[in-house]
């Protein structure tokens, strides 16, 4: 068995680092806003009731942080699968998959910036659709190796 292809795991680490950056941005925006806007912390309030107390530009960072914990979980699973497959067969050339993975990460970062800085829905949707397409291609290419 050969070593795991680290070029397949680098985008995973990159997206995870970006998720932590978004978490810091979220708290750096939200915590001061809670006092600035006199937000009432009520354990019986729904998320919608809490969110209604904050302006959109504060909520957008939290919404994006949540988005980074949704679809990217599929990305992580596919990339780990590819890394395991690369360790099992030296003949498997996964350079294209590594490039596609970085494209996916780049698109997710662009999505984060669009949502966090102005939240233009149509632009954000187009970037999300593109990132979903890249993830679908990665998934199909992985399925072709597995099945």
TrEMBL record:
Keywords: Membrane, Transmembrane, Transmembrane helix. The chain crosses the membrane at residues 7-27, 73-89, 128-146. GO terms for cellular component: membrane. It comes from Patellaria atrata CBS 101060. This is MAPEG family protein. It is found in: Membrane. The keyword Repeat does not apply.
């Amino acid at each position: 068995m050969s070593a795991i292809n680290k070029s397949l795991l680098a985008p995973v680490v990159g997206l995870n680092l970006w998720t932590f950056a978004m978490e810091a941005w979220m708290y750096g925006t939200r915590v001061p806003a809670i006092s600035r806007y006199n937000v009432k912390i009520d354990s019986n309030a729904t998320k919608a009731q809490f969110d209604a107390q904050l302006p959109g530009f504060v909520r957008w960072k939290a919404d994006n942080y949540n988005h980074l914990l949704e679809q990217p979980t599929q990305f992580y699973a596919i990339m780990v699968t590819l890394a395991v497959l690369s360790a099992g067969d030296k003949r498997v050339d996964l350079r294209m998959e590594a490039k596609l993975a970085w494209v996916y990460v780049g698109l997710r970062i662009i999505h984060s910036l669009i949502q966090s800085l102005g939240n233009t829905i149509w632009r954000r949707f187009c970037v999300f659709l593109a990132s979903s397409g890249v993830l679908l291609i990665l998934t199909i290419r992985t399925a072709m190796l597995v099945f």
